[in-house]
Amino acid sequence: MRIKAQVAMVMHLDKCIGCHTCSVTCKNTWTNRPGTEYMWFNNVETRPGPGYPKSWEDRDRFKGGWELRNGKLKLKAGGPISKLANIFYNLNMADMNDYYEPWTYDYEHLINSPKTDNLPVARPQSMITGKYMDKPEWGPNWDDDLAGGSEVVPLDPNVQKLQEHISMQYEKTFMMYLPRICEHCLNPSCVASCPSGALYKRDEDGVVLVDQEACRGWRFCMNGCPYHKVYYNWNTHKAEKCNFCYPRTEAGLPTICSETCVGRIRYIGVVLYDADKVKEAASVEDPQDLYEAQLSVFLDPFDPEVIKEAEKAGISADWIEGAQNSPVYKMAMKWKIALPLHPEYRTLPMVWYVPPLSPIMNHITNENDLKTDGYIPAVDQMRIPMEYLASILSAGDTDVIRKVLLKLTAMRVHMRGKTVGGIDQFRQSELVKEAGTSPEEVEEMARLLGVAKYNERFVIPTGRREMDENLYFEQGTCSLEDLAPPEGVAYHSFGKGE
Amino acid sequence: MAAIFWWVIFPYITLTIMVLGLLYRFAFRQLSWAAPSTEFFEKKWLRIGSPLFHWGIIFAFLGHVMGMVIPKGFYDFFGISDELYHAGAIIGGGIAALMVVVGLIILLIRKMKFERVRAHATFASFFSLIALIIVAGLGTYMTIIYNTTVVSYEYRTTIGPWFRSLFIFQPKYHLMESVPFVFKAHVIAAFALFAAIPFTNLIHFYTLPLGYPGRAPQQYRSRSNYRKKGL
User: Fold this and answer.
1) Is residue A18 part of a domain?
2) Which residues in chain B are contacts of A217 at CB distance < 8 A?
3) Nearest residue to A268 (alpha-carbon basis) of A242, A296, A291, A245
4) Nearest CB partner across the interface for A213, out of B30, B42, B219
């Protein structure tokens, strides 16, 4: 057993209102520099829709993630030898047209314009070439709230897989939001795709980072990541990605996207896993078994054996305690209501999603005289096709989705019964049986999902500064490289205290 | 005197600039050390130009090893006649040379034609492209035209030994005096280009990641320990 700790996130999609506050605060924090304009470490997609970059789930084109070849786990885009052979041109890489050409507006003109007959306007101006753009034709969230309609929705690879025809008529259509950050996978394909070894997974918390000094800009990570969450900075010629706001999480604070989330949809916590089991879990034959296989690598933080091993692996007591109180552990591993995004990519992603329920229940009109078990067929006839959710969250296995939705429905029914009354025998109902839950569990779930107190949503043990090389030496230095002397460079070499 | 300058002093000055520049950049300017790709801006022209140039220059490099580094005696030992060697060199080298030059011209046109690429092209990137075109153009002229119309020049007895003598610090500069002008120009331009490597995009070929196939696919680093090990 090789125990490692991983900081992970759950997003409760039922509560996402698609306000993009997460994207905006993230952008203001991390990617408002030249070369990073098009980078959205966090973005919110309207589904069904192509997402960002356009049709990123089209694996036939981008060849991201892993696949089984002759029973062995291989990078879908090709291993090291084929990468070196193709290092001069990367056929599968997305270019700027798949993202968008970032632009600003010529606001100066509003102030400096001479007096004219017509109102002066601020024309869009490319942030790449500085030239005016007569007509921007695509941008971030261009298709927000299904505004691309029947022209844009079919670009969604999940829609293309659906048997059923998706109607774009207003009263028949459906919609959900999908906020996305880097998945900080347990088996990251971006790390394996990097010829320079610049990408790595941090031992302490599992955050996947790019070493800016080691990165040589070969760009295989861009499409090696099936989620397209590694970006190429055209200004510095290096890769950049979501860093899970590690300067914040090290201080025990939630990431900026979570902190500012209006709907309180995000939960952060620690999970313990066995690194020796990762490869095996990613290599199961049937993609629909990957979800269960992924769950099998996590360890029970209450198991005395696990605690002993974790201590031996150098995981401190407050991290073990963090793992025990982790909201992620509860939702993803214990209650199994949070699912990984596209488990079929075999990267074992660590951002989990509770599938949305609300639009399904909307068409129950006679809720007053509905019996508990009357909700079961309602789950099966929901507005968002179960196949669609399954295509995103469970490699197409609708049984997994159905179980989660039943559980969430049971929670809703029970809590409604508790406050409004008038509901028949909940404990004995078929709904509870099919959902495999109990009133006690459901009440605990309702507390975490509904009340969602700050300290319960974010259980983040701080980074361990006492492990640093020499705190006395680093006192007064600044990590803002190139602006202040970097850590470890001081005026007296004898200060290092080796 | 001129011979001593061009075939002793100049090569050593340019190689020294290259080595010191590389060391300086490796030690203090890692953040700017990258393959300065513009694939993100434009893919269609790059798809033809980049592999053509890069594979061409790899073949050309191997050709130079065969001509400059491996002594003539080696070929004689294996019974490869001068005619056979030069026929191979002209055909193989000619193909590589054309690949390099055509690739470079495609890349240069691309750099000027596409606004997104042009907007971020620096003086250094134009400089290295044009310098490469000059060096490779001279090389192509020598290989394909000079060798077939004037004389199939035996550089293995002049330029080759001189080049090798540089590395044992006993430069045989007198060997270069009889060399035809185009060959001299090619050598001088190439050494000037070597000096420019640390200051241009060309630096990326010094970090071709040949260790990649040998390393573990997953990389873990400890926040508190990796610098201690690394530095």
Assistant:
1) yes
2) 34-37, 204
3) A245
4) B30
